[in-house]
């Protein structure tokens, strides 16, 4: 199973990033992501941090999708951890796994602590509608997430991805997004037009739902 990072802080990507997205055999529905998925992620993290038994099986769908879990902290929503997979996973086990992985095992950050939990916001992204782009600009800002494959200056294939919201949150245009993604993937040399044109790009869409800790407490206390 492959784990990949999202967000804009510099990192070294996992070379085991998958080459082909596995889609659910039963297809995609119009709406999948719901707030209960975020509350479940908080449940999972709380139980983990307090050495409690895992939470009960949730009531939302257990169909299989590629997914990401993102933790942010504070009023400024500073990235605190974001890891996901392009393999289609059953949502109950997938969210359970990546709620913990993104909170405690994102190598860019120290593990989230108990004291930080009340300041957290969690987002669940369900990835859908994967398409091979015709060229490196064949995608739309704010609509598509992108995953690129490229050959670095050492002749090694590398990959990197941004979820759909990253470019707009950073105020980037398409070229800036591509160049940032190349740097994220570890490309050190000068970025040229020929390099950009050589990129193999896959675009995808994401259903995202978010909840703050206060949302979680309000829901669980009802």
Automatic annotation (TrEMBL):
Positions of the AMMECR1 domain: 26-220
Domain of life: Eukaryota
PROSITE patterns named among the record's database cross-references: AMMECR1
Coiled-coil features, chain-numbered ranges: none
Species this protein is from: Parnassius mnemosyne
InterPro entries for this protein: AMMECR1 (IPR023473), AMMECR1_dom_sf (IPR036071), AMMECR1_domain (IPR002733), AMMECR1_N (IPR027485)
Name this polypeptide is given: AMMECR1 domain-containing protein
One Pfam entry name: AMMECR1
């Amino acid at each position: 199973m492959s784990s990949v990072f999202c967000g804009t802080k510099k990192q070294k990507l996992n070379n085991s990033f998958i080459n082909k997205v596995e889609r659910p055999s039963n297809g995609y529905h119009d709406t999948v992501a719901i707030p209960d998925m975020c509350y479940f992620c908080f449940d999972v993290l709380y139980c983990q941090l307090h050495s409690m038994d895992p939470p009960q099986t949730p009531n939302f769908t257990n169909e299989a999708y590629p997914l990401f879990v993102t933790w942010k902290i504070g009023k400024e929503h500073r990235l605190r951890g974001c890891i996901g997979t392009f393999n289609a996973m059953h949502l109950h086990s997938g969210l359970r796994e990546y709620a913990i992985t993104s909170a405690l095992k994102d190598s860019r950050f120290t593990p989230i602590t108990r004291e930080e939990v009340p300041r957290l916001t969690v987002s669940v992204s369900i990835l859908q509608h994967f398409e091979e782009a015709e060229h490196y600009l064949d995608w739309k800002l704010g609509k598509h997430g992108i995953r690129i494959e490229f050959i670095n200056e050492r002749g090694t294939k590398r990959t990197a991805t941004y979820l759909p919201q990253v470019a707009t949150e950073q105020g980037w245009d398409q070229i800036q997004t591509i160049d940032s993604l190349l740097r994220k993937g570890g490309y050190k040399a000068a970025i040229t037009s020929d390099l950009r044109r050589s990129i193999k790009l896959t675009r995808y869409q994401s259903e995202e739902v978010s909840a703050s800790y206060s949302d979680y407490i309000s829901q669980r206390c009802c």
